[in-house]
Specification:
The complex is a heterodimer of chains A (118) and B (322). Chain A is an alpha/beta fold and 118 residues long. Chain A has 2 domains: 34 residues; 81 residues, Sandwich (Immunoglobulin-like), CATH 2.60.40. Chain A is built from 1 helix and 8 strands, in the order H-E-E-E-E-E-E-E-E. In chain A, strand 1 and strand 2 form a beta hairpin. Chain B has 322 residues and is of the alpha/beta class. Chain B has a single domain, classed as 4-Layer Sandwich (Purple Acid Phosphatase, chain A, domain 2), CATH 3.60.21.10. Chain B is built from 7 helices and 13 strands. In chain B, helix 3 runs parallel beside helix 4. Chain B starts with a helix and ends with a strand. Classes of the chains: A alpha/beta (118), B alpha/beta (322). At the A-B interface, strand 7 of A face loops of B.
Chain lengths: 118, 322
């Protein structure tokens, strides 16, 4: 009897551990999902980095201006257009359709970039 | 090839053997100062260290005006946390000139972020200048978020289109151009067909002996296309000015003094009153250049222009704030 109780205890412990593991993998999946749906572009030294980002449909791209000079993020084809971004300000746009979306800074048009949505 | 031939003709105008490369070598950089004198259609340029060649004479004449540029009111980063203070220093410098300028030209980037209070601060500081009239052209920082609506309400009431206009002073014809709107991806500054058509018509009636001063924010000559320092369709604008013996082009945007002479045209960029930018290609980007605080005023400045009627002379002199 004593042994069976002990076994049951071990079983409970194993079930509990499995539950914990399952729980933690769910948490990991949850944390991963938004990470997969967000892509970041940094504006540094008058350039967009990375110059080309490739993302899945539904992804939100977030641009952050890290320069001392304001910039904008403007779609070449008129799909999206940010207000002027001062230092550390952000702009985000969610890409709901597949395609290639070239963009530039309308103040410094030599600054160009591309979002490829697959 | 046709393009090249046209350039060569322009270069050979003075028959002085100096080509585009030669002129590029002659650029005057921030802090050195430059003086340009045009006499009878022949242009001579000197750095301020060569002033002795002028026989000790300080240029003066019927018309004197000063150019200021790139005040960037509202900018507060390390390159200059006090842009109001340095604009005030520029006004003090203008007020201290031996020949008082009749008016001021501001070649754009009055504000940093097109905020009403930034424009208000600049207006307030400029009220302290001995020259009461100020003629503006917009920089890209002055037309943010509203395609220039606010700028035009403040400064462009009597202008045409996106803010271009012309006026005459003492026989000199001034043309104010806007080249900071509707910029295309990968491109440079743009004047656009509507403005070019207006300009062509504006200069048509003028005698070829009329001295012409053109001012705009982005340089109307290609300083450094990699950083966007040039204007796509400026060749078209300059073609309308070929008949004139004396053309002076004044720009800002690049936050350093530089000059070039091409045929009958003298190109000149003014220093900023706010912060310096690096020489073309000498940094990763054209962002604000940090210099030690005690050196800041030596890389900021104003430009003083004198026109001597009888001698057909137009002299451009830069001075630093420090």
């Amino acid at each position: 009897m004593k042994l069976r109780v002990c076994m049951a205890g071990v079983m409970v412990a194993i079930v509990a551990m499995t539950g914990l593991l399952a729980g933690s993998s769910k948490v990991a999946a949850k944390a991963q999902q938004p990470a997969a749906a967000t892509a970041e572009v940094k504006i540094d030294n008058f350039s967009f980095g990375p110059g080309t980002v490739t993302v899945a449909v539904g992804t939100t791209v977030v641009w952050t201006n890290r320069d001392d000079i304001p910039h904008t993020v403007v779609s070449t084809d008129g799909v999206f257009k940010s207000k002027v971004l001062d230092t550390d300000e952000k702009f985000s746009y969610t890409f709901d359709k597949a395609g290639t979306f070239p963009y530039f800074c309308s103040l410094h048009p030599k600054m160009t970039g591309k979002v490829v949505v697959q | 090839m046709a393009e090249k031939t046209k350039d060569e003709l322009l270069h050979d105008h003075n028959n002085d053997g100096i080509d585009r490369r030669g002129f590029l070598k002659c650029m005057a950089w921030a802090g050195t100062g430059a003086l340009c004198i045009m006499q009878g259609g022949v242009l001579k340029s000197y750095s301020l260290s060569q002033m002795s060649q002028l026989g000790g004479k300080t240029p003066s004449g019927e018309l004197s005006f000063a150019q200021i540029s790139d005040s960037h009111m509202g900018f507060n980063k390390a390159a200059n946390p006090d842009v109001a203070g340095t604009l005030q220093a520029a006004v003090d410098k203008i007020n201290g000139l031996s020949t008082k300028p009749e008016f001021l030209l501001h070649t754009g980037d009055i504000s940093h972020l097109s905020k009403p209070e930034e424009f208000d601060t600049v207006d307030q500081i400029l009220k302290g200048a001995v020259a009461k009239d100020v003629f503006f052209v917009p920089g890209e920082h002055d037309m943010l978020n509203d395609e220039g609506k606010q700028y035009l309400e403040r400064y462009g009431k009597s202008s045409k289109g996106a803010g271009w206009y012309s006026f005459d002073k003492q026989g000199v014809h001034f043309i104010a151009l806007v080249n900071v709107l509707n910029l295309k991806a990968g491109g440079l500054g743009t004047l656009g067909q509507e403005q070019l058509a207006w300009m062509e018509n504006d200069v048509k009636q003028l005698k070829s002996s009329t001295p012409v001063v053109v001012f705009a924010h982005i340089p109307l000559w290609t300083v450094y296309p990699e950083w966007g320092w040039g204007t796509e369709d400026s060749a078209q604008a300059l073609a309308y000015l070929k008949k004139f013996g004396s053309v002076t082009v004044l720009n800002g945007h690049i936050h350093q003094t530089m000059q070039k002479v091409e045929g009958n045209v003298t190109f000149h960029t003014a220093a900023s009153t706010a912060f310096p930018q690096p020489q073309p290609g000498k940094a990763d980007s054209p962002g604000p250049m940090k210099v030690p605080a005690e050196q800041l005023k030596s890389v900021l400045g104003i430009t003083d222009v004198n026109y001597v009627k009888g001698q057909h002379a137009l002299a451009v002199v830069d001075s630093t704030l420090g």
